[in-house]
Amino acid sequence: MFSRKSLLLTVMAFVMAASLLLGGSPEIMAEDVTTITVAAFPDQDSGFEAILDDFHEKHPHIRVELEVADFDDHHQTLLTRIAAGSNVPDVANVEIAFVGDFVNRGGFENLTAEPYNAGRFEEDIIGYKWAQGTNDDTGNLIAMPLDISPGTMFYRRDRLDELGVDIDDLNTMEDWIEVGEEFVAEGDDRWLFADAASVYEMIRRSGDHQFFDDDGEPIITSDKFVRAFEMAKEVRDRGLDGQIGEWSNEWFSTFEEGTALVHTSGAWLGGHIQNWMAPETAGKWGVTNLPDDMYINWGGSFVAIPEDAENKEEAWEFIKYVTTNVEPQIKQFEAANIFPSLLDAFDDDIFEVSSDFYGGQNVRELWLDAARQIPEVNTNRYDNIAEDIVGDALTEVLEEDKDIMQALEDAEELLRRRMR
Prior knowledge:
It is a single chain. The chain is of the alpha/beta class. It has two domains: 25-149 and 299-347, D-Maltodextrin-Binding Protein, domain 2 (3-Layer(aba) Sandwich), CATH 3.40.190; 151-296 and 355-419, Periplasmic binding protein-like II (D-Maltodextrin-Binding Protein, domain 2, 3-Layer(aba) Sandwich). The protein has helices at residues 4-21, 44-58, 71-84, 96-105, 127-132, 157-163, 173-185, 197-204, 223-237, 249-257, 268-277, 312-324, 326-336, 363-371, 383-400, 404-419; strands at residues 34-40, 62-68, 91-95, 144-148, 151-156, 191-193, 260-266, 285-288, 301-304, 339-340. The strands form two sheets. It has a six-stranded mixed beta sheet with strand order 2-1-3-9-4-10, sandwiched between helices. Strands 6-7-5-8 form a four-stranded mixed beta sheet. Helix 2 runs antiparallel to helix 13. The N and C termini lie far apart (86 Å).
């Protein structure tokens, strides 16, 4: 006669055997589970959160802990930890503005080497993004592309309708300035842009170079930067911007109240508008390409493994999952407009679905078309320094009326000193 204990053991053995016969596996013991840290910045963390349940289900021996910090703090802390070689995360999320510095500074694993062999995925990922994560001197892939961000214009559809303007007639900066003057003339607290600086940001990101040429020489006195400064100054001088800085409460109000006709940014901003910045404005927005046939990358990020990470094998499993599989790429896109960098994801049905929030427009198809036309853009380890220096020069032009060419020449001289 079976004792209660014997009966219990028999049942447990039967359940385990049945599980194995059916293709399952016994529950992973706690001591067999490795916890990895993924250091991310805000917005990207919501994309990761959207795929964690699926990742844990497919990789029961790995648990992911997200470590989220403010955008600037996140990157500065990463640099400090990596330089010190201690307390580093297993996976580091790096935004495009910082990737040139991280790629060339060192301290990360070469993902094209054993045991990662990431080179097998190169043809699967959009070309310019792969190039940005690669060290120019060695050809080593340091940062695996996670997402891209096609530049786009979010405009108030209801405001254009009030003016009787057809979006198809607005193709150049001059067209937008003209309609902006009409909009501003309709009443107080109306602007074409919240801040003229966004005009500069849009134009300076265009073309196949940012702040440096292929030889690493600054190009901030080039025609592109002159036009970027001129257009921003014209918007300011005509009273077409509210001089409202991004991410301020006043800036958020321009989305809710429709006081700014246009916001230029990456596609990722659409997720913010829809999810938490102005969800009650559904149906009042439209999306269009940037003027003057500019196709640019405005954001996007990478994932990398620090050389001093403790759990590199598990970190690579996570990176492979989020960057080389269609399902997690699309889940992140659905959750936070984190646009896929994986080419196979471009064939997903999600790009055929129109959006009620944008008045029935298929905005994802528009972004997809833009993504395919973005040129390959080089990165440089001094990009972040150049961005700050040229941004300060723009402030002198907009707020102190400094001569544009003088401001750019002074900025380039300062940049060269900082580089030395």
